[in-house]
Design goal:
- This protein folds into 2 domains: 2-61, Ribosomal Protein L9, domain 1; 73-146, Roll (Ribosomal Protein L9, domain 2).
- The protein is built from 3 helices and 9 strands.
- It has helices at 23-30, 41-72, 95-104; strands at residues 2-5, 18-20, 36-38, 76-81, 88-93, 114-115, 120-122, 124-131, 137-146.
- The strands form 3 sheets. A 4-stranded mixed β-sheet has the order 4-9-8-6.
- The longest helix has 32 residues, at 41-72.
Amino acid sequence: MKVILRQSVPRLGSVGEVTDVADGYARNYLIPRELAYVATEGNIKKAEIEAAKVRQEEEKQFEEEKKVASLLEDASVTVSAHAGEEGKLFGSVNAQTIVDALQEQGFSVDKHCIELNSPLKELGVFPVTIRFSHDLATEIKVWVVKD
């Protein structure tokens, strides 16, 4: 069955693409979740309009993220935590903690954008990457200091 994608679906396609999928996959998954609809002439025209709107919104969001990324280039965040004598933290500093510290400074960042391989568990200065998209990322310094 040929369908038009209303949203990007991993390993299938992006918004507005006409793709051929199994009938059951289309009827039971894509169409009920409004991820796609059947490809007819009228729906193809409708898809072109929707795709243009989505692209416009994505461009607008990308520009906003670009502004935030440029402001974050020189930013650093200080997080205070309870630590022992040897500099080991009793807890850890995770992505949500960093987001909260950024919000205190007036930056709005989603916690899923912060790339941490593992939570920070000791005192010091750590470079942390904030990835807004595949093309846009910036690095900030996170200072973990003793309470």
